[in-house]
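User: My collaborator sent over this chain with a note saying "see what the structure looks like." That's all I know about it. Can you take a look?
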Amino acid sequence: MPLYKAKGIVLGSKPFEETGKLVHLFTREHGKMKLIAKGSRRPGSRFGGRLEPMNYCEVLAAAGRNMDILSQIETIESFQQVRDDPATLNMGLYLVGIVGAATEFGQKNPELFKLLLMSLDKLKKKEGRDRVERFFELNFLKVEGIYKPNADPKMMISDHVNRDVAAWRV
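Assistant: Without extra context I'll predict from the sequence alone. Here is the result:
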């Protein structure tokens, strides 16, 4: 099993088998990835809270037949300032949710990765949720090649991902 490193943003995770998690990570190098973090739900796991959505981290993973196995994870930026305020947390999860819904596994999109990281950083610096939301939505549409002037960004994104993203934004 060859090992590889990647830097990415955690999009989310869900339970896997008895003590593991299935982690979705969005990276510049590999696009959206699915990794198994064995034992990550055990108390005292070496992964700890590093598998939370929005964490920007560096991972060491082993290539598997069907899914890759997470060996190590180091947090580069946790965006704790975003998590501390419920409104900015909701906005951060909205951004991560859109990227997760709009991308396929293995689909590389370095521009979208850069946009997500930049938008989370703007939230961290308290540049205003509405401003960050508008910045992300318009640039998302441009990166995806579906931007139309004077069209409602949420409506266009919803059509693109086949889900009502307006409902995600509380």
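A starting point for your reply to your collaborator: The two ends are 43 Å apart (CA to CA).
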